[in-house]
Automatic annotation (TrEMBL):
Compartments (UniProt record): Plastid, Chloroplast
Lineage: Eukaryota, Viridiplantae, Streptophyta, Embryophyta, Tracheophyta
Keyword terms: Chloroplast, Methyltransferase, Plastid, S-adenosyl-L-methionine, Transferase
Enzyme Commission number(s): 2.1.1.329
Catalytic activities: demethylphylloquinol + S-adenosyl-L-methionine = phylloquinol + S-adenosyl-L-homocysteine + H(+)
Transmembrane segments: none
Organism: Citrus sinensis (Sweet orange)
UniProt name for this protein: 2-phytyl-1,4-beta-naphthoquinone methyltransferase, chloroplastic
Entries under HAMAP family matching the protein: MenG_phylloquinone_subfam (MF_01982), MenG_UbiE_methyltr (MF_01813)
Entry-linked PROSITE patterns: SAM_MT_UBIE, UBIE_1
GO cellular component terms attached to this protein's record: chloroplast
Length: 257
């Protein structure tokens, strides 16, 4: 039976008020709650469930962003900061990294990790609580942008890319890493089998089965690589290319302003 969905304004909703309808998480406040709930186990489950592969995909995403020493860069939907830390090493102490996310809990994990690791360059990271759909930055401000597993999770994908386009310097790139919505039925079947038979059962051990079940519906509702390229060009990016990773399970859009 479909449950009544109340998409409350940005505010915390208790779990008892919170219901998924068939794995769908429809609005910003529900998604904010979801990522705040998974924050304590997010990194460990990513390592476990991808056998550490996600770290390779994230390194590729940062490399494709074109970030270089001394740059001023942005990690949108930074979560616990994986890509922000990689960007920090890339731009060095002379550079600056802003990690933006709308989940306090995710930013708290990122900040704790920053304090735990004594890399000098990590001092160049600033964590900002904000919305990818309304970036609190001036036009043409950043030399590179990354968005790791964020675009699929925002409620307005066009607006998110438009905002990143606005704050990106002309000639600079955004690198968007996410699950790939494959056009190959076999790849989709593998992806969904893994989620149903590995990811969700493992997550259920942490009481997070519904949260990880959301992965499947979010991928189904995502854009294919070709559609991501088309959207980027429509928004005004001069170039856009989507690369498939790990046999098409993941994908990375690289768009130049
Ligand atoms: C880093 C990864 C996923 C991040 C992530 C993104 C989301 O949108 C979520 C939404 C809700 C809950 C959790 C997440 C979330 O963790 C990718 C790796 C971790 C995945 C959870 C594992 C997915 C398994 C793949 C389908 C197959 C992996 C094959 C690999 C070659 C072993
Ligand atoms: C799957 S996590 C990705 C975290 C990190 N980039 C990584 O690669 O592991 C998605 C993140 O996007 C954030 N998010 C979703 N929608 C957002 C929005 N509209 N504005 C800011 N952050 C958002 C969530 O809070 C969550 O931390």
């Amino acid at each position: 039976m479909a449950s009544l969905q109340l998409c409350l304004p940005f505010s915390s909703t208790s779990r008892s008020q919170f219901r998924f309808s068939y794995g769908r998480v429809r609005c910003s406040s529900e998604r904010q709650e979801l990522f705040s709930r998974i924050a304590p186990v997010y990194d460990n489950l990513n390592d476990l469930l991808s056998f550490g592969q996600h770290r390779i995909w994230k390194r590729m995403a940062v490399s494709w962003s074109g970030a270089k020493t001394g740059d001023n860069v942005l990690d949108v939907c930074c979560g616990s900061g994986d890509l922000s830390f990689l960007l920090s090493e890339q731009v060095g102490s002379q550079g600056k990294v802003i990690g933006l996310d709308f989940s306090k809990n995710q930013l708290s994990m990122a900040s704790s990790r920053q304090d735990l690791v004594s890399k000098a360059c990590y001092k160049n990271i600033e964590w900002v609580e904000g919305d990818a759909l309304d970036l609190p930055f001036s036009d043409c401000f950043f030399d590179a942008i990354t968005m790791g597993y964020g675009l699929r999770n925002v409620v307005d994908k066009r607006k998110a890319l438009e905002e990143s386009f606005r704050v990106l310097k002309p000639g600079s790139r955004i690198s968007v890493l996410d699950f790939n919505k494959s056009t190959q039925p076999f790849t989709t079947a593998i992806q969904e089998w893994m989620i149903d038979n590995v990811v969700v059962p493992v997550a259920s051990g942490y009481g997070l089965a519904e949260e990880y079940q959301y992965l499947k519906s979010s991928i189904r509702e995502f854009l294919t690589g070709k559609d991501l390229e088309k959207l980027a060009l429509e928004i005004g990016f001069s170039r856009a290319k989507h690369y498939e990773l790990s046999g098409g399970l993941m994908g990375n859009l690289v768009a130049t302003r």
